[in-house]
User: What shape does this take?
Amino acid sequence: MKRVSEPCERNREPILSVLKRVFADRRAVLEIGSGTGQHAAYFAPELPQLSWQPSDVAENLPSVRAWREEAPAPKPLEPIELDVDRPFPAVKVDAVFTANTLHIISWPQVELMFTGIGGLLPAGGILAIYGAFKYGGKHTAPSNAEFDAWLRGRDPKSGQRDIEAVAELAKRERLVLEEDNAMPANNRLLVFRKTRG
Assistant: This one.
């Protein structure tokens, strides 16, 4: 039931260092695609001013719950089901975090995710996205190219996304790219802010 991701263990501290800054004045965050639940269990106690709401498809929730049970206080909230192919749950948040999701789902699902996020976040809301991206259609490292080939071999609809396409998609929801933070292992942490309509 409780699953473990080695990359989660390795990337959590660099991610947290950025989140502590960009989420400093936030009160409620929705994590989309909580996966194993490790990030939620680690970030929630480290960001005590935040109400951390994990979410994922139904099959991943047991692992998220198991990690939540073991987390120190303040624990993340009870995880909720969120499938980007369905209407988003009506949660009141001023921030959204997602890690390693955009390259797993199809591009139409990425579009649905941004539509859902745009509907949830108020003006001034923050979106933080962690993962590997291409720039101008090119990979930033051979390891990223290998990972992308593996992803597409497993599911042709998945794969690393062009940062330019993601930023353009975000703009449709009034989400403007404010930061592009370099992370270990050739990953990035993108920070968007929602503008007023």
User: Anything to note?
Assistant: The first helix runs from residue 6 to 22.
